[in-house]
TrEMBL record:
It comes from Pseudonocardia yuanmonensis. Pfam families: Bestrophin-like (PF14023). InterPro entries: DUF4239. Keywords: Membrane, Transmembrane, Transmembrane helix. The chain crosses the membrane at residues 46-67, 186-206, 212-230. This is DUF4239 domain-containing protein.
Length: 266
């Protein structure tokens, strides 16, 4: 939560400030010892190469973690949309009055899923959305039990109950995935490692009297990599968000008349 609680713009400013400060300190220190460049060139070069390699490894590791979680969240929202869509279709085969009541509740359930994509994980608003979803789940499950009691040997209620359970599981999986972020320790290690590596790179280049523009450019590029890594791990509030299009399109399709009519015996 150390970095996640910050707004995206504040986070970007902090990252730029840290990397540029480390680069600036390295340049200042390098110019102060520039008269000893012949003695310091080799040890500084070794340390610079070592830290740059370490920084590259850490940045790649953190970025891979963030990308993996982002892709998991995209897959989870598609899986939930498919599960709700299947449940909605199967609900149309139930007998009245359970059929109409269930279809209405499934629309409300989809609305809560869309609202969940627009809230910050673990925030009071997100907790309210999950509480509303839990209430709808209880009503849907009660209606499913009524459908089974009314027709215990029919196939339609059993299939509906199975898909309804999968729908509940799909939303729980997605809600958990929204809060499954890259550990703060990994992100902090990335920031500290990048700052040290850039500072030492600036120190080495300033010692030999060249490369000021190069190290500043490197600082900007590293900061952008850090920002992308952090942003991928902020699914509902950053520049790179998980699209809710599958759920939104599903909800729009629910406004059309049901494809199947109620069973004649209902």
């Amino acid at each position: 939560m150390l970095f996640f609680s910050l707004s995206t713009w504040v986070l970007a400013l902090i990252l730029f400030a840290i990397t540029l400060l480390a680069t600036g300190l390295g340049l200042v220190a390098g110019r102060k010892v520039q008269h000893r460049s012949d003695d310091l060139r080799e040890p500084f070069g070794v340390m610079q190469a070592t830290l740059l390699g370490f920084m590259g490894l850490i940045l790649a590791f953190g970025l891979s973690l963030a990308v993996g979680r982002y892709e998991d969240r995209r897959a989870a929202i598609v899986a939930e949309s498919n599960a709700i869509g299947t449940t909605y279709l199967r609900a149309q085969t139930l007998a009245e009055p359970v059929r109409t009541q269930s279809l209405t509740l499934l629309k409300s359930f989809t609305d809560t899923s869309i609202r969940l994509t627009q809230t910050v994980p673990s925030s009071p608003e997100a907790n309210r959305v999950l509480a509303d979803s839990t209430q709808i789940e209880a009503q849907l499950w009660r209606l499913a039990g009524q459908a089974l009691d009314a027709a215990p040997i029919d196939t339609a209620p059993r299939l509906y109950v199975d898909s309804l359970n999968q729908t509940f599981d799909a939303q729980s999986t997605r809600a958990y995935g929204l809060g499954n972020r890259v550990p703060d320790e990994v992100l902090l290690l990335e920031v500290v490692g990048a700052a040290l590596a850039l500072g030492l790179l600036a120190l080495h280049l300033a010692t030999i009297g060249q490369g000021v523009f190069t190290v500043v450019l490197a600082a900007v590029l590293v900061t952008l990599i850090l920002l992308v890594t952090f942003d991928l791990d902020r699914p509902t509030r950053g520049f790179i968000q998980v699209p809710a299009d599958p759920l939104i399109n599903l909800r729009i399709s629910m406004d059309a008349p049901p494809a199947a009519s109620a069973p004649s015996g209902g």
